[in-house]
Design brief:
- It is a single chain.
- The chain is an all-beta fold.
- It has three domains: 61 residues, SH3 type barrels; 61 residues, Nucleic acid-binding proteins (OB fold (Dihydrolipoamide Acetyltransferase, E2P)), CATH 2.40.50.140; 58 residues, Beta Barrel (OB fold (Dihydrolipoamide Acetyltransferase, E2P)), CATH 2.40.50.140.
- It is built from no helices and 16 strands.
- A hairpin with a 4-residue loop joins strand 13 and strand 14.
- The model has no long low-confidence stretch (mean pLDDT 85).
- It is found in: Cytoplasm.
- InterPro entries: Elong-fact-P_C, NA-bd_OB-fold, Rib_uL2_dom2, Transl_elong_fac_P/YeiP, Transl_elong_KOW-like, Transl_elong_P/YeiP_cen, Transl_elong_P/YeiP_CS, Transl_elongation_fac_P.
- It comes from Mesonia profundi.
- Keywords: Cytoplasm, Elongation factor, Protein biosynthesis.
């Protein structure tokens, strides 16, 4: 058993007969009243996100997990297929177990969180950022760069990302996976 002081991003806990992964948390100590921890948790089985507040010192049931590196192989309908980079075993996961499936291209190495009790994969964590090629975007208009204006761009994986006006088709850009936002253009 753990307590609220052990809450951190990525922690997996049993809550309401399901397993949740902590996405965000905030320790709050108001001037009046007891301290508490405000959390945003994502169910690893359904993919639903809930907000919950734990009072300080509340006992939580932690799920023991291991992390392994897996390579994304391909998507087959609603299933995503991965291969362990150590022993080459393969697993398949539903889309709800993935944090940002639209930003994942074939060959991408991700971290899979596995429950140590039954060896069931719980969720997939992407690297902090990925490099993707712009498949389609409208051309930028010369002289229209006075503000931080953006335009929609479709990546090679099919994901939509807002990019600055100077980005063209064929450019490679770095995208932050947690927010799905443009970070920088990659020069070759």
């Amino acid at each position: 058993m753990a307590s609220t002081s052990d809450i951190r991003n990525g922690l997996c806990i049993k809550y309401n007969h399901d397993i949740y992964k902590v996405v965000e948390f905030l320790h709050v100590k108001p001037g009046k009243g007891p301290a508490f921890v405000r959390t945003k948790m994502k169910s690893v089985t359904t993919g639903k996100t809930i907000d919950n507040t734990f009072s300080a010192g509340h006992k939580i049931d932690e799920v023991r997990v291991e992390t392994h590196k897996f390579q994304f192989l391909y998507k087959d309908g609603e299933f995503y297929h991965f291969m362990n980079t150590d022993d080459y075993t393969q697993i398949r996961l539903v889309e709800s177990a993935l944090d940002s499936p639209g930003l994942m291209k074939e060959g991408e190495v991700v971290t899979v969180i596995i429950n140590t009790e039954d060896n069931a994969p719980l969720s997939v964590e992407m690297p902090p950022s990925v490099v993707l090629e712009v498949a389609h975007t409208e051309p930028g208009i010369k002289g229209n760069t006075a503000t931080n204006a953006t335009k929609p761009a479709t990546m090679e994986t099919g994901a939509e990302v807002n990019v600055p006006l100077f980005i063209n088709e064929g450019d490679k850009i770095r995208v932050e996976t947690d927010k799905g936002t443009y970070k920088e253009r990659i020069k070759e």
